[in-house]
Amino acid sequence: MTQDQSRPPAAPRAPLFRAVDELGLTKSLPCAAADFLPLAPGASATAGTLLLGLGPRPEILPDLVPGLAAGPVRYVEAPALAAQYGPDWRGRIPSGFVPADADAVAALAATTRLLLYRPGPRLFPGFFGPLLARIAIARLPAPPAVDGRLAWLPGDAGALLRVELREALESLGFRVQELDGDADPRALLARGQCPALFLSVNFRGLDPLGETAHLLRAAGAVVAVWCVDNPLHLLSGLRGRFWTRLPLFVTDDWFLAPLRRLGAERVFHLPLAARECDLAGPPRPLAPQWAGLSGRLAFAGRSAFPGKDGFFAGCTLPAAPWTEAGRLMDEGGRPDFAWWLARLGVERLWPGNAVRRAGYCAEETGREWRARCLRRAAADLGGALTVFGDEGWRELLPAGSDLRGPVDYYATLPDICATAAACLNCTSPLLPHGLTQRHFDVFAWGGLLLSDATPGLALFPRELTHEIVFRRPADIAPRLKALTASGADGLKAAWRAELAAHHTYRSRVRALLDAVGL
To answer: Is 2 helix (H, G, I), strand (E, B) or coil?
Structure first.
């Protein structure tokens, strides 16, 4: 008989308990010693133990966790998880374990050994996130006092809208601290710093479960998010419902209704804007170094956004709807993100990333739309088109096109837009009612914009928009020729006056501060 044959058969392993988390996903719950994380290393069990989650087998905890018998044992459990465990689970909780009120946990945390059931915050971050945040603040040597004139802007140098928001906040009396990607808000709070406002663009600086948001809110900060890109794409990377309780601002009002249906409690329309410094003086003069552009149409932009392939991994273009989208573009229509959602029958917008299927199709539609506009403009204008962008444009433009490399947005592009005959804008279909930064900056810089017919232009008076809009690629050259023949100085001046009066980042940030009570 072999050694294996001489051993008694192993006892069958108990099946893992399966629970539905707060996003409706089913997860298996382990229950081993390693699943209970000490949050206060070195704390003595004789002062008592506070269990943040019991796991599915509370009856084995006295044997599983050393020292539980040394002092009183209190516990808290996520109500939604306790309900799934059922009455049998409650009957298996050791008699010496006493439930603690979640609101009193922070007071106990300073003197009690803390053990966290690791899966809890991942399954029910809406319960454990605020709880752990209150504990973290209570355990600081001195809870930080909120500085009513301090704002934190998270994100690396050069991040989207970082310059514009810093300028606007400072003009309204705030001191701005820019937090790079490796900044640790917890460490800053421990040093006594706490902002009145933590303003995130596109959830920058916030983790998928919302731990940072919960921590900052527990310290007294207002955490607000300005979704400059497609909000549903941004949500597809989140794994908790914390975002529904934050004030959200979107540049495209189409998203207000779907976000509210998903549970957003406070969501506001806040469009892009122009910098006050670009509107403070006379229009930017023509730049001699770009004099060769004076009779040409200019376009600047990426052929695709960074990380596109990874973000849309597994997404494909369905043949029949793609053909239909092409016909719609030929007719002057706009097969945008909303159109693709309906055409593909995508109903689950969040949680999960099913929404990216429609996003990928809208992104490809935008790529095709830009290519059509550029090719037709180049042909109709006798090649008088200059594109500033990456090499990805080569395959989309006619052979011999004037393609130049990317340019710095703040240092170079303003002179280009002010000097060229006009700047072409093709709005991404990812935003059904969207505007781009070009709708504000080109006129602020003293240039002339030609824009496709995005519904977002309803933000401005019709007398300003109807002369600059085209619906089909074939309309671009005639529109440009009509504007340049009649002179557009009056139109440019009217646009700058409108922007200065109603559409600066200072006014946008003031509206945001009013909305969040600051």
So the answer is: coil
Secondary structure, 3-state, 347-401: CCCCCCCCHHHHHHHHHHHHHHHHHHHHHHHHHHCCCCEEEECCHHHCCCCCCCC
Distance spanning both ends of the chain, measured CA to CA:
80
Sheet containing 266-269, strands listed edge to edge, beginning at the edge strand earlier in sequence: 175-179, 147-154, 195-201, 222-227, 247-250, 266-269
pLDDT tens for residues 31-55? 999 999 998 765 666 778 899 999 9
CA 426 – CA 369 distance, rounded (Å): 8
Q: Which residues contact 266 (CB under 8 A, 6 or more apart)?
A: 246, 247, 248, 515
Signed CA dihedral, 449, 455, 456, 457: sign only: positive
Task: Please name the residues in contact with 240: beta carbons below 8 A apart, sequence gap of 6 or more.
Answer: 22, 23, 125, 126, 129, 208, 209, 210
Alpha-carbon span 260 to 248, nearest angstrom:
10
pLDDT digits (tens, 9 = 90+) for 88-146: 999 999 988 999 888 888 888 877 889 999 999 999 999 999 999 999 998 888 889 99
Whole-angstrom Cα distance, residue 33 to residue 326? 59
Give the pairing type, strands 147-154 and 113-117: unpaired
Neighbours of 158 (CB within 10 A): 10
Count of CB atoms within 10 A of residue 424's CB? Answer: 25
Residue 330 CA to residue 328 CA, distance in Å, equals 5
**What is the biggest distance separating any 2 CA atoms in the chain, rounded to whole angstroms?**
102
Q: Which two tokens stand for residue 230?
A: 């497609």
* Cβ proximity of 54 and 79 under 8 Å: no
* pTM of structure: 0.92
E-strand stretches of 159-253: 175-179, 195-201, 222-227, 247-250
The enclosing H or E element of 115 equals strand 113-117
| Ordered DSSP codes for 241-286 | GGGGGSEEEESSGGGHHHHHHTT-SEEEE----B-HHHHSSSPPPP
The rounded Cα 216 to chain-centroid distance in angstroms is 18
